[in-house]
Amino acid sequence: MADFNEALHWVQKQYFQAVAMKDFDWEKLKNVKCDESNTVQIAILNATVLHPLSQQYPPSNTYKLSFLKSLLAVYEKQGREVCDELYNLIAELMAKKKNSEDEFIHKSYILPCGRAVTLCESAHFVSQGTTGLNTWQAGLYLSNWLMKNKSFLQGKTILELGCGVGLTGLVTLHCCRPKSYTFTDSNEKVLNKVKENLQINGFCPEQRQDGPKACFEERRRVLEDFRNSFGSQNVEECRTCSQTKTGVSGELCSALVCQIDWERCTTEEVDSPEVILASDVIFDPHIIEPLVNVIKVLLSQKGKDQKCQPVAYIASTIRNNDTYETFLFALDNSGIKRNQIHSAPGEFIFYDKTSEIALLRLELP
Hints:
single chain; FAM86 N-terminal domain-containing protein; transferase; FAM86_N
């Protein structure tokens, strides 16, 4: 039974994150014996396509159909009898017309405690004139690293540059117990999607608005019961992730959403963060100078209650060596101290391990 539960959880995590079928790992499932009543196959369907989370925040029909066909192929290749429920689901999805207007899909990332972070994000790399409406590999990498190093963020005020649809921030809010978290981006459409994803994940907007910032408070019953139903192997992880208080002042954790233009950012626009986060923000040589400038502005701020100088963690997928070297050169010229972090991230959510990703810790001397 332990082998089956492990295989079921493994398949479930990949399904909800919409891992591409070419990368989907079925090996653990292949070692699980099916009984004559097909309870194993039905359990897999109930944990994925028929799960309440999949019903309310579904992946695309195209993905669900690919998943079911791949599952069918696994059993047919092994010469096993396939349950009627699997055939029926495939037939239902094939009968549905593909909706070409589905620009957005849902992905859910199952955390170590068993809670899921659900995101509505673009089905395309570029949507509505921006690349910020989906989750990129460095964001997945950084989220894994932060979950493994929660103590760096506990009780801290955090600001994220180029937050995208909000994965890193929501993972941090649920797993790392910060004092507050500010999502920032220059694109209004991206920030509207962040606000939507905050509400999907149990944060409701406050009635008061703080100037250009949208404020959100975490509900005490953070998520619906079915979103906490994935199980956890680690009691301490579960206790940490389900904690709604910051552990510092006893207040519920707050999230802010704020529009920041890197070329015009001033110290008056943002509160003094203790930790700055960013991922996959180094892709265009023309934005490197304003990015480095805003990082320096944030690192130079120190609130009256802060004991230490601010620090930044920047994760980057290195697609072009020249562009990344330009970024490093700009950091050195600005007087920002940099150290590359070589410790491996956790493996809580899936990311492309073939991608070259660098993680830097930045601070002022």
